[in-house]
Specification:
357 residues; alpha/beta; Isopropylmalate Dehydrogenase; 10-stranded mixed β-sheet; two-stranded antiparallel sheet; 12 strands; 40% helix; globular; EC 1.1.1.85; 3-isopropylmalate dehydrogenase activity; manganese
């Protein structure tokens, strides 16, 4: 059976890291006798330049027909004007909405060889194995926006809106994942201030009591969570939270692993279809220089194999290959120790492939 994967390289370092992901997918297909068809589409700034739209209809149709989507990154200085009516980030938000991808999974683990790359002391990283499940299609990013001027000057408004149905479905995803891990779910909110957070806490508590009473469940205010992620990150198993809080906390959590270039993500909906991407941005300052870390993209390919293609053995093989490459010291400059020679983007991708064939 042919499995279709839509490739959306995007902008900046996106094409470079997606190219390494493609190498790995082709190697996996050969090793595990998978029939993969890879088709490329435009998104973000590259799409704006060629079509005038951040998500052309052709790309949306390609993704809709695919079994999974692999995305690089969007954005860059060329399109940075926040007042521009058309911006690259609109393409990313639109494809998530179009495919109904409401749960964003961001796992954080620490490879022993990369402990020194983290700004935290090694003893604080012992036992870290957490998963953040971020609600992806609601909240302030998608709420009504307003920019006006009155006699006193300009004013602006961004509406944070959530319905209990949006909360229930993402909490169920997070809780089911907690059942496969260490059995603990933590809700992160700001219930002492925000009405939306109070709704999150009521609904989550109800779902956990009625459907997941076998799990350990607690909650934490977002500011306290930000502190605790640095003080004792090993306390967390699965974190579930709203869109903006999840966006911020996972960037913070990336520093536990030493670099944003190490963290993959999966955006899932009601079925098996998902969108997979590294959590880092387009990094235009290093684009085209062969310095980008491709491991987050390659690990995103492992998540793609696991969650959308149901190829657990292939996913584990990719993760083991990445671990072996790190163990051998073949890493890009963001992870290299002073005594190590930094490798290029393609050299790291080739090393992962060599572990797979």
């Amino acid at each position: 059976m042919t499995m279709h994967i839509a490739l959306l390289p995007g902008d900046g370092i996106g094409p470079e890291v997606v190219a390494e992901g493609v190498k790995v997918l082709r190697a996996v297909a050969q090793r595990f006798a998978l029939d993969l068809q890879l088709d490329e589409g435009l998104i973000g700034g590259a799409a704006i330049d060629q079509t005038g739209q951040p998500l052309p209809p052709e790309t949306a149709a390609l993704c809709e027909a695919a079994d999974a989507v692999l995305l690089g990154a969007v954005g860059g200085p060329k399109w940075d004007d926040p007042l521009a009516p058309v911006r690259p980030e609109q393409g990313l938000l639109a494809i998530r909405k179009h495919l109904g991808l409401f749960a964003n999974l961001r796992p954080v683990t620490i490879h022993p060889m990369l402990v020194d790359a983290s700004p935290l002391r090694p003893e604080r990283l012992e036992g870290v194995d957490l998963l953040v499940v971020r609600e992806l299609t609601g909240g302030i990013y998608f709420g009504a926006k307003q920019l006006e001027r009155d006699a006193a000057g300009e004013w602006a408004s961004d509406l944070c809106h959530y319905h209990e149905t949006e909360i229930v479905r993402v909490v169920r995803v997070a809780a089911n994942l907690a059942r496969t891990r260490h059995g603990k779910l933590t809700l992160v909110d700001k219930a002492n201030v925000l009405e939306t957070s109070r709704l999150w806490r009521r609904v989550t508590t109800r779902v956990m009591q009625e459907e997941f009473s076998d799990l350990s469940y607690d909650w934490m205010l977002v500011d306290a969570c930000a502190m605790h992620l640095l003080r004792k990150p090993s306390d967390f198993d699965v974190i579930v939270t709203e869109n903006m809080f999840g966006d911020i906390l996972t960037d913070e959590a990336s520093m536990l692993a030493g670099s944003m270039g190490m963290l993959p993500s999966a955006s899932l909906g009601a079925g098996n279809k998902g969108l997979y991407e590294p959590i880092h941005g387009s990094a235009p300052d290093i684009a085209g220089q062969g310095r980008a870390n491709p491991l987050a993209t390659i690990l995103s390919c492992a998540l793609l194999l696991r969650h959308s293609l149901n190829q657990e053995a292939a996913a584990r093989a990719v993760e083991a290959a990445v671990s072996a490459v790190i163990e051998a010291g073949c890493v890009t400059g963001d992870l290299a120790r002073p005594d190590q020679r930094a490798q290029s983007t393609s050299a790291v991708g080739d090393a992962v492939v060599a572990q797979l064939v």
